[in-house]
Specification:
The chain has 122 residues and is an all-alpha fold. It has a single domain, classed as Orthogonal Bundle (Helix Hairpins). The chain is flat, with a radius of gyration of 18 Å. The structure holds adenosine-5'-triphosphate. Adenosine-5'-triphosphate binds next to helix 4. It is a multi-pass membrane protein. Belongs to the bacterial diacylglycerol kinase family. Pfam families: DAGK_prokar.
Amino acid sequence: MKDSFLGKRIRGGGYALKGALLLIRNEPSIQVQFAIAIVVTVAGFYFDITKTEWMFQCIAVGMVMSAEGLNTAIEAIADFVHPDFHQKIGHIKDVAAGAVCIAAFVAIIIGCIIYIPYLQAL
Ligand SMILES: Nc1ncnc2c1ncn2[C@@H]1O[C@H](COP(=O)(O)OP(=O)(O)OP(=O)(O)O)[C@@H](O)[C@H]1O
């Protein structure tokens, strides 16, 4: 079982889960996004949003947190391979942060499309 196809997949899933927990425990930006995810989940139940809205909301939350996780990994690699100041490292980090910015911008638009009509109906 240990080195079987299924065993390797299960072990890989365990490492990935460990990585997700490490991000939530140690990364302030992920912690903020996790808190926002909880708030919008509560809002989703409060306003009784539709199944489609739940799907878009879940995709938006997953997209932002995944992008932030990858950004964190890229920053860690950049600092590991080149701990000193370097223009190229700055560019790499800016581009990685830019990806998070795009994901967050799209998530904000999705949030507005979902919740503005519910807020107007209050
Ligand atoms: N080694 C470096 N060389 C050149 N510029 C850097 C370097 N490290 C950081 N920078 C610049 O500073 C910005 C912030 O980098 P930093 O690694 O502090 O990211 P951060 O977004 O503050 O991440 P975190 O808050 O997760 O530590 C980068 O986007 C880049 O423009």
